[in-house]
Amino acid sequence: MKALALVGLHPWRTCRKSVDSVTEFLEGSLSPEDRTRVLTHLKVCPDCPRYFRQIELTIRLAREVPAETLPLPGRAALLDEFRDSHRPPDEEI
Amino acid sequence: MVDDMPMADDEAIESQGQPRPASLEDALLDGLRRGDEVAFESLIDRHTPAMLRLALFYVPSLAIAEEVVQETWLGVVRGLGSFEGRSSLRTWIFRILINKAKASGVAERRTLPLAAEGDGDAEAPSVDPSRFRGPPRGYWSSPPNYWDELPEDRLLAGETLAVIQRAMESLPAGQQAVFELRDLQQWTSAEVCKALGLSEGNQRVLLHRARTRVRSAIEEYFDAR
Lengths: 93, 225
Known about the structure:
The complex is a heterodimer of chains A (93) and B (225).
Chain A lengths: L1 H5 L8 H6 L1 H6 L4 H13 L3 H15 L12 H11 L8
Chain B lengths: L9 H5 L9 H11 L2 H19 L6 H18 L9 H15 L3 H14 L31 H4 L2 H12 L3 H12 L4 H8 L3 H24 L2
């Protein structure tokens, strides 16, 4: 069991643990030892690499969600304010 | 989305040595300074949705969030002359927004639940434990389905994006704000921690939970098909 733990195959450093640390892994905030464990697990696991890819794909797809064009109340007043702020001083009189 | 250039400037960014690219934001800034209304409108359209989401993290209702965003844009118009470009235009705008939102008087009430939101369920697993075999093996018994192999046009279909949007909108405010700033606006974690007053670890937990929930929503959607 100890030898398995060293190479990252300890049962509880398996899928559940890897999945829980996906963000830390992608952020680069895992300790070098834990990072190695995750990488080792990803090499032997048939499913977790897919999960990791899906997290990255989720982020990519979320960026494609069109920003809703919402009518900000007061938008016209904002544009007036902008126009006024650029009016040459002599026009204001 | 055009917004994929790295965020420029600010101490946090400079320490990472990212150069500030000539960008659309620079072009918009030039336009604003010349009094180009189209540039101003385009800036409003570009940032208002994210600003509302972020404002909602501090204030309790959409109506108040809208007021905060309006005030922010007024602040932008009035402050433009004194904006020195030491931070990026976007960073500057969002900083005004956060200050206004906090100043709206309800910040105190919202800040606490936010921090707690990360701590409270930090130990909760990312994925339903029933999807894994028990000890000693701990492998998936119900592995992720293969939605990531679907053709691009399925993934980017309006219906899929609507599912993602709904999932994002149903996240708790803290997760929503962090996901918005980190994954959509592509701020660095240092910037987000500073802007929202979160610890690095807390920010990461919120981000992790947000990503996990949005991924699950996509999986459930394609499972049901």
